[in-house]
Each structure stands twice: as C-alpha cells, then as structure tokens.
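User: Some background: our group keeps a shared notebook of sequences we're curious about, and every so often someone picks one and asks for a predicted structure to add to the entry. Today it's my turn. The entry only has the sequence so far, pasted here. Could you supply the structure so I can complete it?
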Amino acid sequence: MSADFEMERKIVDFLRRNGKSTVLIIFKEFGISRSTANRHLYDLERSKQVFKSNEKPPIWDLMEKKNETKHTVKPEQKSPTTRTTNVRETRDSCEEELHVRDLLRSGGLKAHQIATSLGQQKKHTKKQLYNMMEEGKVQKCDKTSIWTLNDEESNASYNLESSCSSDHRLGSNSGLSQSFDVITELGKGGFGCVYKVKHKFDGKIYAVKKVDLTGKADSEVKALARLEHPNIVRYITCWSDSENQERNEVSNTSRSSSDVVTFDRSGCEENDDDDDDDDDVSDDVSDDVSDVTSGMESLGVTADSRTYLFIQMEFCAGGTLTTWINDRNFNEIKRTTMDIHQIFYKIISGVEYIHSNNLIHRDLKPDNILFGSDGQVKIGDFGLVVHQTNDSGDPIERSNRGTPTYMSPEQEGKDYDEKTDIFPLGLIWFEMLWKISTGRERAKLWPDLRNQRFPEGFCDGYTTESKFIKEMLSFTAEDRPQAKHIKEKLEMFFSLDQNLLSQKTI
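Assistant: Of course. Here's the predicted structure to add to the notebook entry:
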C-alpha cells in the first residue's frame, strides 16, 4: 500500500469520525505540511470521496454525507455514459498535470512557455496552473511571473522566496563573480540553478550549476569528474562558496585552498536517501562535506551560512532534445529517420558508457539530453546518479526518485538496476520518431505507450523500431535489453557504427 493511499485513507477516516474540517486542522492532526494536506484533499475530491464548501478557508467533508443530506443520486447510480465521461476528464486532467510537473522539474517557466511546449492554449494552461497552485503543487513568483514546483513536489529545499531573490544569482556570490560574468539563467528548479557564464580570463562560455552543498551534490560531481565520453557533458571543475561570506567580511584575496573542493575521478559514492538529513549520508560523503564546512569555518563563516557547490561544465549551445522534438512537432521542421537514428545511437552510446562505469543515471528524458555547438549529443544532469552495486557487488536499496512520466515501473520501488534506464530510452526513441501535435494528444497517448500500446500506424511505419521499443518498454526489467545490445542492433539494422560519434547530427 502506497504512503499516499494510506494517508488519504486516514483523512477519510478522520472526516468520518469528526465531521467537517479545515485543512489547518487536518495537517496539524497528521503532522504533515499544509501543501501535502491540500494535495491529498484535492486528489480525494477528484476521486469524488470528499467535497469542499465555498467558504474562505474552505470546509472539507465526505461526499457520502453530502449525498445523504441532499438525497442526490449516488455516483454508482449514474449512467455509464456520464461515469465514463467523468473518468476520462479526470484522467486527461491528471495526465496534463504530470506533463506540467515534468516541465517545471527542469526549471521555472512562464505560462506561455509551458503552453507552447504542451501545444495548448495559454488560457487553458494558466487555468491548470492556478488549479495546481490552489492545491499547493506549484507556486508563482509575482515579480517574474515564473512558475515553479513547490518544495515537496520538487524534493528540494528551495522555496518561492529564495527562487525570486537575488541570492540565487551567481553575481551575488563573491567566489564566482571574481572569475565569471553571468550572461543568463538557463534553468531553475528543485535542483538549484544553472547559468550561462563567460570566463573573464579565457573568454570562453561555460555552464555553471549552483546547488546546496550536500551529499547528493557530492555524488553528482564525482560522477561527472569520473566520466569522460564524447556523449556526456564535460566536467571542468567545482568549488564551494557561502551566501554569508561577504557579511562575514571574508575577502576574496584571503581565501585559502581549503575553500575549494577537489574530487578524485575514481570516486562516486552512493547517496540515495529519501531526505536531506546529513546523518544518513555515507561516511565518505560526510567526510567531504565536513572538510568543506570546517574549511569555511576557519575563514570566519558561521554554521548559519548556507553553503553552495558550483559545478563548472561545458556549455551546450545546441539546446535540448526537448527543443529538437518541439521544433518537429510544432514548427514543422523536417527530421529524417536517419537523423533520428544517428542521434539515438549517440544517446545509447553515452548510456552504455555510464552503465559500464557501474552507474545508473535515473533521470533520462529529453530535457537532460543536450546538443553541443558542433551538434554532438551530450547526456547531462547527473543529479540522481547512483552506483549499480556496493563495493561487495551486492544490490543497493534505492529511493524512488525520478521524473514520473519517464520513470520505469520498478523505479517507483527501491529494487532496480541499470535496466531502469532502458525504459525511458524506449519512450524517448518513440518521441523522436512519432509526431505528437498537442499536449492533449500526448496526455492520452502516454499511458498506452508506457504499456506497450502504440498509436495506429506506428508499427506499420516503423516496423523494426517498434519491435525494439516494445522490448525496451517491457514491464519486467529482466526482459529489457542492455544498452550495449541496443547499440549492436542499431549498427546491424540501420547501418550505424562508431564513426558516427564524431559526426554532426543537427
């Protein structure tokens, strides 16, 4: 039984015992946050188990009591047509919401940007966003009109106030402004912020990712430092800094070497906790964080300082695979089947290399696949990377983090291996091949696709590809091929080979 289902059952039992209640009473009763309580209540409302009044704040009660009081027709007495229509509308709304969440997990966006990505009318998208905001799932920055996921939806410590404040600008950090000029913000979300910057001395353009200095950030940077492959975003270096550094009057010139974090390319520790409690971080990661903390304290930075890790990477000027797909879907840019297979071959090559290094990416999706200025394909965002096994070669129990619409079925649990990355690759290959004209069409198609049911015409138009994709989307991980075997099939059936790794693809 899932935790969400169990909590909703408890809320229903509470309303049955105690009668009408406000969200304030409910979240205090169960020791959860207001946004979590709201999310459960609105989920229960969609499933027609509870209803709310029009009062401010709304009063919640069981639907069965409303039906008894007003002698209305019970849901099971409705006609099949009405019931089917309601179920379909609820399903469509939930699917659209999932796609909005996916977009916002990659960073804050304005309503018109979300509407364009989903192929929707802006008015429809704004209505969806305000409904989600009422339910505590998203939030809007009044200053910038940028929408972001709330803290719990993004599994992050960033809130709306910090997202809208200047503290997230690289220019406000003395350790960065000393060497870089900030050009623009590339993305913002639960992971932190990514910026396009220009180095003041070498004049080159880079991407710099700013995240809270935690064990999870440590794992990400160790993975990047370890992986050297033409189809993986190239890591440059990293360092730490504190937002309170200037207030503590620590000058840039007096910075000691202990303020710079150096990682050995041979290390990449598993750090897969469900929360951010440093007590649960592995010993090696704790030592790294402790070293940095003590180094900062030696410079006069107090324990109250919020310490960030900055990760400098190559800048991928060609954009993301999401943009590539949207250009085909909405801007009618032609894509040949050979172009698609070349790009997918390079994605597979990068994933094969990740797996050969005993790692699992866990968040493969079009947003995390980039193009360099030369058109080369690059896999990025290693924020959820983990080891396949521990030092003894035994399986590791993991968290269920990832992007829901791309996660494999088993990733919702804690027992999975590197083949969890194959499932989203099947979805990505399909998206590259098949034009999806609107967000509504995608919302209807996606559940079928995840269950190996393709739209009419796909199997006829892509006979070989559909067989491979169906195998990649197998519900059981053991039935999916390994990345190296998919690569071999691409070489065999589509005349692709290693020489393509050095060729331009966009």
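Suggested note for the entry: Residues 80-105 form the longest helix (26 residues). Residues 72-76, 152-171, 245-304 have pLDDT under 50 and may be disordered.
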